[in-house]
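Good morning C.,

I know you're traveling, so I'll keep this short. The sequence:
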Amino acid sequence: MEKLRRIARNGRIDSMLDGLQNDKWANTFFRGKRYGEMSSNVIESYNNWIDGAHELPITCMVDMIRVQIITQSSTRRAESKRWITKLCPVMKKKLVDSLKLAKSWDVIVASDTVLEVHSSISFYVDIGRWTCSCHEWKFNGFPYCHTVHALHSSGRDVHDFIDPFFHVDCFRESYKEYVYLVPSSERFDFDGAGSSIIKPLITKKQLGQNKRSRIPSRGENVKQIKCGRCLKYGNHNKKTCKAAIQGHSLFFWICI
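The tokens, ready to paste straight into the viewer:
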């Protein structure tokens, strides 16, 4: 925040930052649950999902998105019917991995509900309050490896201490509603009078290629490639490289 203030040197920026509520951007102050997701702009992912519909007329675009939603919902309903575990497969794997990671750690029982887990450092787990000193359980609704090991060591069913959001029943509930079919735009009834026909706008295509790349969220892993021009790793190649050619690289290109 201080770096942003120094760079901007603008009273409006200071006013905006001073009025920014911490619970709107910081995990520490957020009173709800983020369920382990980090996303700065969820609309970017959605735009990428409907990428094929962007260039269509509005009625065709809406119809294509409708078909995508129907297909996705139907696929996930059918897929979830095959699941026989309490947790969704991804979270089930996360639970198993946590148990494997923590199997060598020691657990000290302070009371019926408070336990201390010793790994490289110590963490205390309060089962009665659903809290752990690492705070992962509170933030994400899913117990971290310290808590999983403490619950397992005390003979409790770990599934009972995981937020219902991660259970198969909740997943199925999310996709139980149906999107009903509607007539396509070609079958809409209208009189065909000249005033009812809306012609496309007269536009001029701008020079250059439109930017269509999705902006990655903070914490998202982006694949790094090696540029054949500057020989550095990044997200560019020799055609888009803007680095100055130096030393052996210049000699290499002259030889070519």
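Safe travels,
E.
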